[in-house]
Amino acid sequence: MASISRIVAKDCKFQSRDAVLQRPRYDLPPRGIRNYLSFRSGVGSSGDVKSCLAIQNKRFSPAIIQSSASRSSKILCQAATNIPGDVPTNANTSSGMTTYERIIETLTTLFPLWVIIGTIIGIYKPSAVTWLQTDLFTVGLGFLMLSMGLTLTFEDFRRCLRNPWTVGVGFLAQYLIKPMLGFFIAMTLKLSAPLATGLILVSCCPGGQASNVATYISKGNVALSVLMTTCSTIGAIIMTPLLTKLLAGQLVPVDAAGLAISTFQVVLVPTILGVLMNEFFPKFTSKIITVTPLIGVLLTTLLCASPIGQVADVLKTQGLQLLLPVAALHGAAFFIGYAVSKLSFGESTSRTISIECGMQSSALGFLLAQKHFTNPLVAVPSAVSVVCMALGGSALAVYWRNQPIPVDDKDDFKE
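Given the sequence above, the corresponding C-alpha cells read:
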C-alpha cells in the first residue's frame, strides 16, 4: 500500500520574494513522492525574477511558504509528483492534483470498502478469487513489496539511524507486544493447536503497508510510519520465524528455516530490488511508479479477498468463534501501542506507533501458513485478520482524523 497512497501538496499563492520554508509535522504525504516546487513570476519585470527556480523539496516535507517581506510580484507555488525533468509548468487542477492522482487517492482511502466487498465475494463466490493460489499469491505479494521498495532510497535507512529511539519503539511494539498478545489470547481462549498457531503466526508478522494509508488519514507521521514498516519488514526475516518457533513450537512443528527462506524471498528481495532501481535508475522508476498505484489497489484487494475465499467453508461454520480472538488481538495492539507510546512521545507519533502495532501483514501470514504448515486451519486466523486489521485500523484512523493534534505537540522525528 505504500505505493498507492500518493497524496500531493495543494497549490499555494503568496506575496514575497524572500520566502521562509517551514516543515509541518502532520498530514504528510506518503514517502517516496518527490515534490517539485516551481516558482514563477506573476507580475514584475525581468529584473525582479530572472528565471524560474526549481527547488526539489525533501521527501515527506510539503512546504508551507510564508511571506517575510511584502513584494509587488505574485509568486505561484505549484506541486507536482513523480515528474521527471526540470520544472513543472502548471497545475492540472485547482488543488494541484491531476485527475489520475485524484482517482488514486480516492481508491486508496476507500480501502476498507474494497476489503468489505472482497470479503463478501470471497465468502459467497469463492471461485471468483480463489484462482490466486500460492504461486500467484506469492508473485502478487512480492510485487507489493517491490512497489514499496520503489519509494525508498538509502537515505531512508540513514534516517532510521537518526531516529533510533522512535523507530526502535515501533519495532519493539511489532515484535514484542503483538506476539505476546497473540500467545496470551490463544492460551486464554484455549484455541485448538492449529488455530492458536495461526494466531501466533500472524501476530509475529511485520507491519502491513496499509498502515501507511491509515497513518495519513489519522494525521499521524507518515514518514515515520513508512520507516517503521520498512524496518519491521526487513526484521521479519529473523523475527517472524524465530518468534513463531518460540511461541508456537510447543503446539505444532515449526519449520523456522523454511519460514526464514520464504520471508527472505517474498519480502526482502523485492524490497531491496525496488530500492536499487530507485537509486540507480530514477528515470525509469519515475515512469513505472505512476502505474504501480492502480495495480497496487487491485492487488491489495485480491490479496485480501483470496484468503477469505480459500477458507470460506470454515468461516461459514466457525466465523464468530474465530472473529473474537483475532479482533481482540488487533484491538489490544492498537490500545497498548498507543498507551505505551504516550509515555514518551507526542500525539502524532503515538498514533503512528499504535497503527503500526495494530496493523500486520496478514497476507504474509496467510502465505507462510499455506506453505509451511500441513493443517489448513493454521491459515484461517490470517484470513480473518485481513478483515479485522483493515476495518479496525481504518475506523481508528477516521476517529483520530476528527480529533485535533495539540498545537504544542512534541516533534519526535528528525528529518
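The chain is about 60% helix and 5% strand. Try to locate this feature in the C-alpha cell string yourself.
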